[in-house]
From TrEMBL:
The gene is Kif17_0. Residues 57-123 form a coiled coil. Keywords: Coiled coil. This is KIF17 protein. It comes from Steatornis caripensis (Oilbird).
């Protein structure tokens, strides 16, 4: 009776060790795969979980609706990214225009100061160290702490005749 029961419960192949081993391997593989999917789902966020799961659909229309939703979601992301890119480009363009304006203004100021120095240099006494501007430029030192130039003090060199 027990032998008949084992054959009925387990079927004809109840005693087949190869079949049992095959079932055990399949079950082990299925468990491993399930654990991998669970781990992947825990690591992913809501958006990427759509890509990880294999969806089973009852009809083609249901599959089309699901894929259309996914497509709309990705299109929204794309539009948001494009908008952000345009914003960054316009911000960069405004900064570039501002920098170019500053450079042009500084160049004009530099030209003004250079012309003023050229006019004033002829009025400086010849016995003053400021009569030679190139020498003053070489002797000047930039001070990082105060953010200004340290230029030599004006000195008048008097020559005494014997």
């Amino acid at each position: 009776l027990q032998m008949l029961e084992r054959q009925v419960v387990g079927g004809e192949q109840a005693e087949n060790k190869d079949l049992k081993e095959k079932h055990r391997r399949r079950k082990k593989y299925a468990d491993e795969r399930r654990m991998q999917l669970v781990a992947a789902l825990q690591q992913s966020n809501e958006d990427s979980s759509d890509w990880l799961l294999l969806n089973v659909y009852d009809s083609i229309q249901e599959e089309v609706r699901a894929k259309n939703k996914l497509l709309e979601k990705m299109q929204k992301k794309l539009r948001a990214a494009e908008t952000e890119i345009k914003d960054l480009q316009s911000e960069f363009e405004l900064e570039k225009i501002d920098y170019l304006g500053t450079i042009r203004r500084l160049e004009r100021d530099l030209l003004l100061f250079q012309q003023l120095l050229d006019q004033v240099q002829s009025l400086v006494r010849r016995d003053c160290n400021y009569s030679n501007l190139e020498k003053i430029k070489r002797q000047s030192v930039w001070d990082d702490e105060t953010s200004c130039w340290k230029i030599p003090e004006p000195v008048i060199q008097k020559t005494h005749l014997p």
